[in-house]
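Two proteins follow. First one:
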Amino acid sequence: MKTYQDWWQAQAEAFGRTDSDGAPLEAYSSGRALSDALVGLRQLHDAKLVMTGTPRNSAVVKSIDLKADPQTAVIEDCVDLSAWRRVDAVTGAAKEPADRLNRYVATASLRWFQAHWLIYDFKREVDRTC
């Protein structure tokens, strides 16, 4: 669970800065989870936006398989983005899309790799609110 919480904190920090390359996300994620986060960061920077505030989570461990090779875990979360907003990086003016989904269910898949957990997949269920 700590890896998941730290990953969200690293995203909040990276997405809140115009000069972030997202490198701290590599400590907590790999694969599709990392590439999706880096693409989102690049899109935000290209639009001259940053995120302010903090995302909120209500995560629970849904499963863990310590016998698998590598070991795996699945976390389900109610992601609440209502206090994490897109703003113009220069003026601070709100730039939220009208159709933004503020709360949704998400599933994070983790693997044990080199003595720590890494999130390798993160799926947003945009048709399920929480």
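Second one, unrelated to the first:
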Amino acid sequence: MVFPRRGPALLAFASVLAAGLFWRGPAFAGGDAAHGGVIAKRWCAACHVVSADQRTAKVDAPPFADIAQRRPDDKEISMFLADPHPKMPDMSLTRKEIEDIVAYIRHFDVRPRPPAEPNGKDKEQPRRG
């Protein structure tokens, strides 16, 4: 069932979107947010609110702005998109498309992020020896 999204929730979403458009941090290094937006509008907008100008979405599908705020770990979002789930269709996204969608989702989160590791590598953990 589709319900209109209006009022305070839409205003909050638009504010986060507007602020996010002016901030470009390390999260964009792995993907192309603009291309991710194109993919999201094509595949995700049927259920999720993916842009400030979108007026309807499914009630049980969180808006991308909520996902960005609640899921700060890019890897977690990537893994979710790569693994089909019962409520989400298997879109058979490529790794690059997933990176682009994650970058698009991430642009809704205006909170400062820690600097990315060089070359996208995680810090090497000490080994037990």
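SUMMARY FIELD: The chain has one domain: 2-109. The beta strands are 2-4, 56-58.
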